[in-house]
Amino acid sequence: MKTKILMVCLGNICRSPLAEGILKSKLDSKKYIIESCGTSSFHIGSKPDKRSIEIAQKHNIDITQQRAAQFKQSDFTTYDYIYVMDNSNYSNIKNLAKDTQEKEKIKYILNEIYPNKNLDVPDPYYGGEQGFEEVFQMLNKACDSIASKLKATE
Ligand code: 4NP
Q1: Per-residue pLDDT of the chain (154 residues; tens, 9 = 90+)
Q2: How many other C-beta atoms can be found within 10 angstroms of the C-beta atom of residue 104?
Q3: Is the pTM for the entire model greater than 0.90?
């Protein structure tokens, strides 16, 4: 059975598509399924934001085939690990969890590099290009940590 990992943000067009693409680039697709979604319905069916596509491309990662989806309750059963980008994603999906086992699947992605701090990956949607590079760098570090922990359990 493949290990399934879900990356969650608000719109599923800026941060979580990058997190999905970055983690996919570090893990064997024969062993892992990595997907992303948003807590909102705003962008269902859309491609990632042009600026996320460009920053990924600059780092040799292709995210152009991704299409935005909305988080759903059954994702708690489908996925083994759920990583959220910020506090508001955390509370939004925590409210949909039906028991502590589901709640405990939700992790702040930046806790991978700043343990227990519950820090937000800043939403770059309303900012400039620089914001996307910063987001890429923090997600890359967090995904390095996730990938090495998972590989250690293979
Ligand atoms: P994301 O960024 O959650 O990183 O995909 C956003 C994208 C769109 C909106 C908000 C955040 N929006 O309000 O449309």
Answers
A1: 999 999 999 999 999 999 999 999 999 999 999 999 999 999 999 999 999 999 999 999 999 999 999 999 999 999 999 999 999 999 999 999 999 999 999 999 999 999 999 999 999 999 888 899 999 999 999 999 999 999 999 9
A2: 10
A3: yes
Runs of H (alpha helix) within 48-112:
50-58, 75-78, 87-94, 100-104
Closest residue to atom 10 of ligand 1, CA basis:
11
Pick from 137, 22, 25, 147: nearest CA to 81: 147
Contact 147, 27 (CB under 8 A): yes
Nearest alpha carbon, ligand 1 atom 11: 11
CA of 84 to the centre of ligand 1 (A): 13
User: Sign of dihedral through CA atoms 71, 33, 55, 47?
Assistant: negative
Among 9, 20, 46, 135, which is best to mutate for testing ligand 1, by the most ligand atoms less than 8 A from CB? 9
